[in-house]
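Data card: per-record layout.
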Amino acid sequence: MATDEKQARKDAQKLIADNRRARFDYEIMDKYEGGLVLTGSEVKSMRAGKVDIVDAYASIDHGELWLKQLYVAPFEMASAFPHEPRRARKVLLHKREIAAIGKEIGRGGLTVVPMRLYFSKGNVKVELAVVRGKKKEDKRADIAKKTADRDARAAMGRAVRGKG
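The structure for this 164-residue chain is written out next.
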């Protein structure tokens, strides 16, 4: 029953943007999910997929979590009251979650980046991750591991088909 519920929840989520670059550049320590405070034209642009999440990061100001440098393209039809493309957007999280993020960031060397933006039951949600930057050696090791896995899968595929 639990797997059916998870599948139904996953089907109800529509992905807007995925920060694949962050998975390569950072080591993920912890993840959080929160809502975003947006204007109507921003939601319309997000439905059209006109979002750039790569340069975005989150910071805590006066006990509130803000997502900064998230680019949401201006909506063409909203000419009367357009939104600013790179404005700071408030992330809705519980106080204890914000305090936990603040404590982790306070240790130093960590930052908060958005991993995914998606619609969940009509609301825009953001998956935030507390991350530490990878060193060049770590990135090389990841690339080597991916290459080895790909080669192993290809070899197994050839063996199954009887061509290897």
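Known properties of this structure: Strands lie at 13-18, 26-36, 51-52, 57-61, 64-68, 71-72, 89-92, 110-120, 123-133. The chain has five helices and nine strands.

See the next section for split statistics.
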